[in-house]
Design goal:
362 residues, alpha/beta, Aminopeptidase, 2 domains, eight-stranded mixed β-sheet, four-stranded antiparallel β-sheet
Length: 362
């Protein structure tokens, strides 16, 4: 199989989450006859270890999972799974690593370390990186560095981009539940109106967050709200769902403290009771500055002036060992997660070439 064949087969088999039997079968069948050692460390994850007799190992990672999106690309190799699509380019990420595996097996790449290829599920959902790390995989193979790549549609076609330090945000889901007392709307002053409280809470929180000038890069916004049951009764319960993102743990605590203080002042004013919950989320994705400098010497790679507010659980790997995450432009302008998401297969050749240079020089 060639690079195009890998991409087509994986695109057709799009699956979501951490249980990816068809995707795992395709990857395994492409690797099982190569000169590598296969392991399945967690759920549908697949790793391929190429032992070249060195003391340490360089790792490359590709995410495997698709999205719950109904495809509208019109491709003749559309997803065969209903309401499931590779709308974020993960089929391309896997195809690049499979091509690298073929080249390693044919000795078309001359490495300076052993090579570990990681095919990881659940990047879009619960996060598969940390469970894989928890198996002791990096210790087993003495992984010294890790690299990854992601297709980005708003960057020029076949151009590579990264930056030293923070590249992608720490992110967690934030949920706010406001409880009050429902009464007929004609007697609204006797109740505790959670819809009014929510409006005040959001307006105050957004205003106060904007005043935090010491935190240059931050995001604290809510995209979902549910409240009330009928038009002529005060709402007794309002549910808000949002996202908190930044690039520093101290900044994260500052933003969370602001959210709590705003909730308390809202409760005092509206006689409500507010509960705030957070999930663990992903850490900020911080590239190793020394490795970024070395990449600039071996690759044609542009440096981004600012980090991006998107997230990726590749950040867990970078908390374990130094590494770099790279953006690969597709030039289409079609948003990630869009049902029309597609890219020219030629951009993957740029990615494979970059991986080859990384393996041969680092």
């Amino acid at each position: 199989m060639e690079l195009t064949d890998y991409r087509i087969a994986l695109h057709r088999a799009a699956e979501t989450g951490q249980h990816l039997p068809k995707t795992k079968k395709i990857i395994t069948s492409c690797l099982e006859n190569l000169c590598c050692f296969l392991e399945f460390p967690w759920e549908s994850a697949v790793t391929a270890f190429f032992d070249f007799g060195f003391d340490s190992t360089i790792a490359l990672r590709a995410d495997m999972d698709g999205l719950p999106v109904t495809e509208k690309t019109g491709l003749d190799f559309c997803s065969e799974n209903k309401n499931t699509m590779h709308a974020c380019g993960h089929d391309g990420h896997m195809a690049m690593l499979l091509d690298v595996a073929q080249r390693l097996s044919r000795s078309d790449i001359h490495p300076k370390s052993n090579v570990l290829l990681i095919f990881q599920p659940a990047e879009e959902t619960t996060g598969g990186a940390k469970p894989i790390l928890d198996t002791g995989l990096f210790e087993k193979y003495n992984v010294k560095n890790i690299f990854g790549m992601h297709l980005i549609p708003d960057l020029p076609k076949s151009r590579l981009y990264t930056r030293s330090g923070a590249l992608m945000a720490k992110s967690c889901e934030i949920t706010v539940d406001i409880c009050g007392t429902s009464v007929h709307i004609a007697r609204y002053k006797e109740g505790a109106d959670t819809l009014a409280a929510a409006a005040f809470f959001l307006t105050r929180l957004y205003d106060e967050a904007e005043k935090l000038k010491d935190i240059k890069y931050k995001l604290l916004r809510f995209g979902k709200s549910q409240s009330g049951s009928v038009r002529n009764a005060v709402s007794a319960f309002t549910h808000l769902e949002g996202s908190l993102r930044c690039f520093d743990e101290k900044d994260f605590l500052t933003l969370y403290d602001l959210t709590e203080k705003t909730a308390k002042s809202t409760d005092k004013l509206y006689s409500t009771n507010t509960t705030i919950t957070l999930n663990q989320g992903y850490p900020p994705l911080i590239n190793d500055s020394c490795l970024v400098s070395r990449l600039a010497q071996i690759l044609e790679i542009d440096m981004l002036s600012e980090p991006r507010m998107i997230t990726d659980d590749f950040s867990w790997y970078l908390k374990k060992v130094p590494g770099v995450y790279i953006f690969l432009g597709t030039g289409t302008g079609i948003d990630l997660h869009s049902p029309e998401f597609d890219f020219d297969i030629s951009v993957l050749e740029t990615g494979v070439s970059a991986y080859k240079k990384i393996i041969e020089n680092l």
